[in-house]
Write a structure and sequence with these properties.
The chain has about 750 residues and is mainly alpha-helical. The protein is about 50% helix and about 5% strand. It is built from 33 helices and twelve strands. A ten-stranded parallel β-sheet has the order 3-4-5-6-7-8-9-10-11-12. Strands 1-2 form a two-stranded antiparallel ribbon. Helix 6 links the parallel strand 6 and strand 7. The radius of gyration is 34 Å and the shape is elongated.
C-alpha cells in the first residue's frame, strides 16, 4: 500500500482483531482459542488474518486454534512466517483446509520440514490441492527422527522453496520426482550434485540456486545439466560470497545454451563482462532481467536498467534500487546495495519515499546484521535530513523511526550506528508529527547520553529528549525518572558545566528544556532535582546569565514545576531564591515575568500558616504579583502549551489572595485567546463552572472578575461556533504540556 495514504480499514480491523483476539473467542479445554459461532470470515480475510497474526508475532499454539474451523475461517493462501507453533497445533489448524499455498519460512525449530510435509501429506485433498510450498530457513528433521524422503506425496506441487535448509542430494532426488514441479529454490542448501534435476528437464521453468556452497560438480558438469533443462526460463546462479568459480563466464559464452531464458542472475560472480552479457541477451530477445550486482559488469548504456531489460547492479540508482527490491532477503546483497546507495543519497535534493521504503525493507529483514543496519541508518539520515523529511509520508517515517529505535536497542555499544540513528531522529518533522514509541525512544536516547561524552552528539541527544519528554504522559515521565535517575544527574552535570564556563549554547538550552519537561507534573522527579542540589544550581544559572531571557524562561519554567509540588514548598522558602524571583517578576520580557509570577502564585496560595518566612515579605510579594500582572501586554504568540487546566483550578479558589487568582485567570485567557483547542479543553474539564463561581462570588477582585468575564465570553463564542455539546458530555483530558522550544 502507498505509505502516503492512511492505513486501510481492513488492515486496521485485522490489527485490532489480532491484538484483541480473546475478546472474540472462547478458550477450549486444551488452552486453544475458538471463534464464537456467529463469526464467519470471507475467505480472503481469513488468509490476511493468519498473515497478520504471524507478522505481529501473535500466532502460537493457543491463537492458531481459531483456524481449526474451516467453516468460520477458510484458508487458501496461508502465510505463517516466523510463527511459534508445535507440530500438533499445525496439523490440527492448517491441514483441514484445502490450501493452494503455504509459506512457513523461519517458523520455530521445533516444527520441522518433516513434520509439515507429513502433516500435509496426511490429507488426500492437500496432496492434490497444494501448489506452492515455501519452507525457507527450517530444520529438515528433528535429531531423534531419521531423515526420510517426504516430498513425493505432494503430487500437486508446482513450486517449492527450501532455501537455507539442511537439504541434501537425497532430498533433491525426492523432489525431482514430483510430476508437476515447475519452480525450485535450493539456495544455500547442502546439495552437492544437480544431476537429479534432469528428471524435471521438460517441466522446470524457475531454478534458483543462490550460493550453493557445497556443490561438488565441475563447471563442465554443471553446464551439462543446465543445458538439458530445455524449458528453463529463469535461472539464478548468484553468489554473494564471491566464490572464484568461472561458471558465469562459461555459461555466458556457451553457444545456444538455455534458449528460452528470460531471466538470468549472476550477481556476485567473477569474470562477468558487459560484452558477454550483451551478446547473451541479444541472442535471447525475450530477456527481461539480468542480475549483475557485485560483478564488474553493468556499466554500459545497454545495461542501464532503464528500459524493458531490468538490471540489478551498482552503476546507477535504477540498478541499485532494483537490487534492493529483488534481494531484500539476501543479507550480503542488501549490504552491498546499501553501500552503493549511500554514495548517491549525499546529493539527493528531492524527497525520495520510494528509495526510503526500500531501505526500510532491508532494515526490517535483517535486524541483527550490523553492516546492514549501519549502512541503512546512514542512508536514512541522508534521505530525511533537513527539508527532505517534509516530503516523506508520515506512515513511512513512522516505520523507519521504529526501525531506527530497534537498531539502537540491538547495537547499544556501536558508536557510529548510534550516531546515525540520533542524527535521523533529530528532525522536527519526526519528533513533532510522526507516530512512534516516544517513551522507548526517550529511554534509548537517555541511555546513550549516560554512556557518551561526544559534545556534538550530546547536543543532539538533549535536543531529542527535550522534545520527547514534552510529549510523554505523566506516568511515562515518572517511570523515566524512576528508571533513569542517573540521566537527570547527567543533565544537571551538563548545566553545571556550561554554567561554570558561562557558556550559552544550544546544548545548555536544550538541556534546560529537557529538565523542564521531565519535571512536569512529576513530583518524584522534582524531589530528585531538589535532592541533587538542583535549586542551588539553578540560582547560580540565574546569577550567571542575568540578561539571557531565554535561559531565564526555561529555568523559571522548571521551578514552576517544583512550586506546584506542595511538599517541596519548604525547599523554596529561601530568601536568596525569592529575591531573584522578585527581581525577575519585573522583567520587561513577559515570558520571564509570567513564570516568575507563577512561582510566587503557587508559593503564596497555601496561606499564611505554611509561609515560613516573614509575613510582611509575603504581603509585599502578593502586591508586586498583582501589580505586575495587570501591566502585562498580550503576547504576540502562544508562550506555553498545556495539556490540562487542572493545576489552575485550586489557584482560582484563593479568594483571600487575588494576585494568585489573577495569575491563573490570566494564564487561561492567554492560551484560550491563542488557540481554540484550549476552549474545548477548559469546557471538558469543568472550567465553565469554576469561572462562573469566580465571577459570581462577592469576594472576587474586580481585576479577576474582568478576566473571568473575558474567558467566559470566549467560551460562549467557541460553543456557538463549534456547536459543542454541554461540557458534561465531553471527555476529560488530563496532564499539562509545556513547550520545549
Amino acid at each position: 500500500m502507498d505509505e502516503a495514504s492512511p492505513a486501510s480499514l481492513t488492515d486496521l480491523c485485522l490489527s485490532l482483531v489480532s491484538s484483541k483476539l480473546e475478546l472474540f473467542c472462547v478458550k477450549q479445554a486444551d488452552g486453544s482459542l475458538c471463534l464464537r459461532e456467529s463469526l464467519v470470515f470471507p475467505q480472503e480475510l481469513a488468509d490476511q488474518l493468519l498473515c497478520k497474526m504471524a507478522t505481529e508475532g501473535l500466532l502460537n499454539d493457543g491463537t492458531v486454534g481459531i483456524f481449526r474451523s474451516c467453516h468460520q475461517l477458510r484458508l487458501r493462501r496461508a502465510c505463517m512466517r516466523t510463527a511459534r507453533i508445535s507440530a500438533e497445533a499445525f496439523h490440527r489448524a492448517l491441514c483441514p483446509h484445502r490450501l493452494l499455498e503455504l509459506d512457513a519460512s523461519r517458523v520455530n525449530a521445533d516444527l520441522t520440514i518433516s513434520d509439515i510435509v507429513h502433516s500435509l501429506a496426511s490429507s488426500k485433498e492437500l496432496r492434490e490441492s497444494l501448489q506452492r510450498l515455501v519452507l525457507n530457513g527450517l530444520t529438515m528433521t528433528s535429531l531423534e527422527e531419521p531423515s526420510r524422503r517426504c516430498f513425493g506425496a505432494l503430487q500437486g506441487l508446482r513450486s517449492l522453496s527450501v532455501a537455507h535448509v539442511d537439504f541434501y542430494d537425497s532430498g533433491l532426488a525426492d523432489v525431482c520426482t514430483l510430476p508437476r514441479l515447475e519452480s525450485l529454490d535450493i539456495s544455500s542448501t547442502s546439495v552437492t550434485n544437480l544431476t537429479p534435476l534432469l528428471g524435471l528437464r521438460t517441466r522446470l521453468r524457475y531454478l534458483t540456486m543462490h550460493q550453493l556452497k557445497r556443490l561438488e560438480m565441475t563447471t563442465a558438469q554443471l553446464l551439462a545439466v543446465l543445458s538439458q533443462l530445455e524449458g528453463l526460463q529463469h535461472l539464478d546462479i548468484s553468489d554473494d560470497k564471491q566464490f572464484t568459480s568461472d561458471v558465469a563466464r562459461q555459461l555466458l559464452e556457451k553457444p545456444g545454451i538455455l534458449p528460452s531464458l528470460v531471466s538470468l542472475d549472476v550477481s556476485g560472480r567473477k569474470q562477468v563482462t558487459d560484452t558477454a552479457i550483451r551478446s547473451f541477451v541479444e541472442d535471447r530477445p525475450g530477456m527481461t532481467f539480468v542480475g549483475l550486482l557485485a560483478t564488474d559488469a553493468g556499466f554500459s548504456d545497454f545495461l542501464s536498467g532503464e528500459g524493458t531489460l531490468k538490471v540489478t547492479g551498482e552503476a546507477n540508482e535504477t540498478q541499485i534500487c532494483e537490487a534492493l527490491r529483488r534481494y531484500s532477503e539476501r543479507e550480503g546483497f542488501v549490504r552491498e546495495a546499501l553501500f552503493h546507495l549511500f554514495s548517491l543519497t549525499h546529493v539527493m535534493e528531492k524527497p525520495r519515499p520510494d528509495i526510503l521504503k526500500l531501505v526500510a525493507l532491508g532494515m526490517k529483514n535483517h535486524p541483527s546484521t550490523l553492516n546492514v543496519q549501519l549502512a541503512a541508518s546512514a542512508c536514512v539520515f541522508n534521505l530525511t535530513k533537513q527539508d527532505l523529511a517534509l516530503g516523506m509520508p508520515v506512515r513511512l517515517l513512522s516505520t523507519i523511526t521504529q526501525l531506527l529505535l530497534e537498531a539502537m536497542k540491538t547495537f547499544p555499544n556501536h558508536q557510529q550506528l548510534q550516531k546515525n540513528c540520533l542524527l535521523s531522529l533529530c528532525s522536527d518533522r519526526i519528533l513533532q508529527e510522526v507516530p512512534f514509541n516516544r517513551f522507548e525512544a526517550a529511554k534509548l536516547v537517555m541511555q546513550w547520553l549516560c554512556n557518551h561524552e561526544d559534545q556534538n552528539m550530546q547536543r543532539m541527544a538533549v535536543a531529542i529528549i527535550s522534545i520527547l519528554a514534552a510529549k510523554l504522559s505523566t506516568e511515562q515521565t515518572a517511570q523515566l525518572g524512576a528508571e533513569l535517575f542517573i540521566v537527570k544527574q547527567q543533565l544537571l552535570h551538563i548545566v553545571r558545566q556550561k554554567t561554570s564556563q558561562t557558556m550559552v549554547d544550544a546544548t545548555l538550552k536544550f538541556t534546560l528544556s529537557a529538565l523542564w519537561n521531565l519535571t512536569d507534573e512529576s513530583p518524584t522527579t522534582c524531589r530528585h532535582f531538589i535532592e541533587n542540589q538542583g535549586l542551588e544550581l539553578f540560582i547560580k544559572v540565574l546569577e550567571s546569565f542575568p540578561s539571557e531571557s531565554s535561559i531565564q524562561q526555561k529555568v523559571l519554567g522548571l521551578l514552576n514545576n517544583i512550586a506546584e509540588v506542595g511538599e517541596l514548598h519548604s525547599e523554596l522558602m529561601d530568601q536568596r531564591f525569592l529575591n531573584h524571583i522578585s527581581t525577575l517578576l519585573h522583567s520587561p520580557e513577559v515570558e520571564v515575568s509570567y513564570f516568575a509570577a507563577g512561582i510566587l502564585a503557587h508559593l503564596t496560595s497555601r496561606g499564611e500558616g505554611l509561609w515560613t518566612l516573614d509575613l510582611p515579605l509575603r504581603s509585599t510579594l502578593l502586591e508586586q504579583l498583582h501589580a505586575a500582572i495587570i501591566k502585562w501586554p498580550p503576547p504576540d504568540c502562544e508562550m506555553v502549551a498545556y495539556r490540562s487546566f487542572n493545576p489552575f483550578f485550586p489557584l482560582l479558589e484563593c479568594f483571600h489572595t487575588p494576585g494568585v487568582q489573577l495569575w491563573a485567570a490570566w494564564a487561561m485567557q492567554h492560551v484560550c485567546s491563542k488557540n481554540g483547542r484550549y476552549c474545548s479543553m477548559l469546557l471538558a474539564e469543568g472550567g465553565l463552572q469554576q469561572l462562573e463561581s469566580v465571577r459570581s462570588d462577592p469576594n472576587t477582585h474586580k481585576d479577576v472578575r474582568t478576566l473571568a468575564d473575558n474567558i467566559l465570553d470566549s467560551l460562549q463564542r467557541h460553543q456557538a461556533r463549534m456547536g459543542q455539546l454541554p461540557p458534561q458530555h465531553c471527555h476529560t483530558l488530563t496532564h499539562k504540556e509545556r513547550d520545549a522550544q
